[in-house]
Amino acid sequence: MTSESVDDYFSISDILTTQERLPCKVELPIYRLGYLDSSSTSDDLQPGTKLDLSFWMARALCSRKRHIVSVEMPRPYREGYREILTADANVVDLHKLGPYYYSYGSQLLKFELPETADVAKSLIKCFQTRIRKIMDSSQNAYNEDTTKLTAKLDETEKCLFKAGQMGLNDFQRWETRQTEKLTTSEMVRSHRKRKRALMDDS
Amino acid sequence: MDPAEVEFLAEKEEISVVPNFTQDKIYLIGGDVGPFNAGLPVKVPLWMAINLKQGQKCRIIPPDWMDTERLQDKKQEETDSKFFTEMPSPHFMEITQLLLKCATDDIPHADEIRTLVKDIWDLRIAKLRSSIDTFLKSDATHAKLNYLTLMELNTARPFLTKALDQMHLLRSNLSGRIQSTQE
Amino acid sequence: MLAEKALELIAELQRTIDSTLGPYNEDTARHVLEEMKALFEQNQKDVSATVAGENGLFSGVQLRHAALERNKRCLLAYIYNRLQHIKRMRWEFGSVLPSDVKLNLGEQEVQWFGKYNKLLANYMRSIGDHGGLDLTQDLKPPKTLFIEVRCLMDHGEFETQDGNIVLLKKNSQHFLLRSECEHLIRQGVLEHIVHG
Question: What is the annotated quaternary arrangement, including any partners (chain C) (predicted)?
Answer without folding.
Answer: Component of the GINS complex.
